[in-house]
Specification:
The protein is an all-alpha fold. The protein has one domain. It is about 75% helix and about 0% strand. The chain has helices spanning about 5-35, 35-45, 55-80, 95-115. The longest helix has 29 residues, at about 55-80. The protein is rod-shaped.
Length: about 120
């Protein structure tokens, strides 16, 4: 690959989007785990209900991990893009939406954590 190859940028953007996809999975799994105790109560309303307080803590932890990973990946991507030369960037291509998406997922994950705790 030469020094003026936009494939470097596109590889970095694919990496960012892979991290965002992973963060969404962690946030979604965190929600499911946090609501696990509620699911058990609904599935067996007549049965004995053990305490599943751990599910909220683990779920919130997973959602926080997802939010942090999305924010860090977005920050890292933006920082990397600033090191690229003009020749390595595709012409007339907006780089901001992918970074906004990553930070948006991080904010949504943080908001979900607040909702789960409250």
């Amino acid at each position: 690959m030469s020094d003026n190859d936009p494939r470097v940028f596109f590889a970095a953007e694919r990496t960012l989007l892979a991290w965002v996809r992973t963060a969404l999975g962690l946030i979604g799994l965190g929600f499911v785990v946090a609501k696990f105790g509620l699911f058990l109560r609904l599935a067996h309303p007549e049965g004995e209900h053990l305490s599943h307080a751990w599910s909220v803590s683990v779920g919130v932890g997973l959602a926080i991990l997802g939010a942090i990973s999305s924010a860090v990946a977005s920050w890292q991507h933006a920082r990397f893009c600033r090191t690229l030369s003009v020749n390595e960037l595709p012409p007339r291509y907006r780089m901001d939406p992918a970074v906004w998406l990553g930070f948006g997922v991080a904010l949504a994950g943080g908001a979900l954590c607040v909702v789960l705790v409250v």
